[in-house]
TrEMBL record:
InterPro entries in the record: AAA+_ATPase, ABC_transporter-like_ATP-bd, P-loop_NTPase
Keyword match Transport: yes
The family this protein is said to belong to: Belongs to the ABC transporter superfamily.
GO molecular function: ATP binding; ATP hydrolysis activity
Annotated organism of origin: Waterburya agarophytonicola KI4
Gene3D superfamilies per the UniProt record, alphabetical: P-loop containing nucleotide triphosphate hydrolases
Keywords: ATP-binding, Nucleotide-binding, Transport
Organism superkingdom: Bacteria
Protein name, UniProt field: ABC transporter ATP-binding protein
Transmembrane region(s): none
Domain ABC transporter: residue ranges: 7-239
Length: 316
């Protein structure tokens, strides 16, 4: 059912003068998800988001927002109210105060005066700019300006947010502040699509991830599914004894695939195909073999590694 999806596209395509920027994309995003759209420069992320925000006319294909067809005419004004779009080149009016800037947009959305006041206070609190309400925008830091842009994007209480590279150019602290705000918005029930070419920005935030390459959506899945499908179990092992003896014992375990020596030379990173019980069995067997272990630590390959593998698969 189309209604189950906050966003659903069918064969969505954008062609610019013979060049295809977005190619036959069937994107599905459930309500309440934080969906990370990842891809290198020029992959088509901005073009896709602009079409979802009704800022760009698709060459072909259809877009449904909460089950309603998105068209770039005035046939469905409710849809505009449901959407909040933060473009990558966000415009700010440097000479205005923070309050006047937000009020200007609240008026554009026809919020009546009492709602406007309440809403301005709410969003300023959310983006932690209450104490800057009288400041001129040109005096704000880049991180504050980006939070102000986000405040403007949600002033009309949309239920779907489209954020195009919102953290690019921000320092680690500003990125973290931005992520915290996104988490609050998700908890409030918003569906959020957020693009980046920096995976680590998204790994902590997203519930699902899509990867774009050369206009195609080459992967789209929940994070848990990706972990399950692609992330290998690894075990870090340390010993006080001879490495060869540990390696000999590892060779006898059917779930040990390969290993690599860690830089400290007294530790190994083992690629392991078994389940939790098999890890426990390996640990028991090493102890029974009298190997003086200093460390036995199970980890999962992180998202960065998974995506590098995926990129490699796509390229090969
Ligand atoms: N208005 C336009 N006219 C012609 N070509 C365009 C236009 N907009 C985008 N393109 C081209 O479409 C392709 C996809 O661009 P897009 O900006 O959507 O990618 P992106 O993944 O957002 O990249 P980035 O990470 O650099 O922002 C690029 O080759 C770009 O040059």
């Amino acid at each position: 059912m189309m209604n189950d999806w906050a966003i659903a596209t069918y064969g969505l395509t954008k062609r610019f003068e013979g060049h295809i920027a977005v190619n036959e994309i069937d994107l599905k995003i459930k309500s309440g998800e934080v969906y990370g759209l990842i891809g290198p420069n020029g992959a088509g992320k901005t073009t896709l988001i602009r079409m979802l925000a009704a800022a760009e006319e698709p060459t072909k294909g259809e877009i449904y927002i909460n089950g309603d067809r998105l068209l770039r005419d005035d046939s469905n004004p409710l849809q505009k109210k449901r959407l909040g779009y933060l473009p990558d080149d966000f415009p700010l009016y440097d000479d205005l105060t923070v309050w006047d800037y937000l009020e200007y947009f609240a008026r554009l959305y026809n919020l009546n005066p009492s709602v406007r006041r309440r809403r301005l206070q709410e969003v300023l609190e959310l983006v932690q700019l209450e104490n800057k309400r009288k400041s001129i925008i040109s005096t704000l830091s880049r991180g504050m300006k980006q939070r102000l842009s986000l405040a403007r994007t949600i002033i009309h209480e949309p239920i779907l947010l489209l954020l195009d590279e919102p953290v690019s150019g921000l320092d680690p602290l500003a990125r973290q502040q931005f992520r915290q705000i996104i988490k609050i918005l998700q908890e409030a029930g918003m569906t959020i699509l957020i693009s980046s070419h920096v995976l680590s920005d998204l790994a902590e935030l997203c519930t699902s991830v899509g990867i774009m390459e050369l206009g195609f959506l080459v992967e789209s899945a929940s994070l848990s599914e990706l972990y399950q499908r692609l992330s290998r179990q690894q075990i870090i092992l340390g010993t006080l004894g001879k490495m060869e003896i540990l390696q000999q014992a590892l060779r006898q375990n059917a779930f040990v695939e390969t290993w690599e020596m860690m830089p400290e030379r007294d530790r190994l990173k083992v690629n392991f195909t078994g389940e939790k019980q098999d890890c426990a069995d390996l640990l028991r067997s090493l102890i029974l073999a009298d190997i003086p272990l200093t460390e036995f630590h199970c980890i999962q390959e992180d998202l960065e590694t998974i995506f590098l593998k995926l990129g490699h698969q796509q390229a090969s």
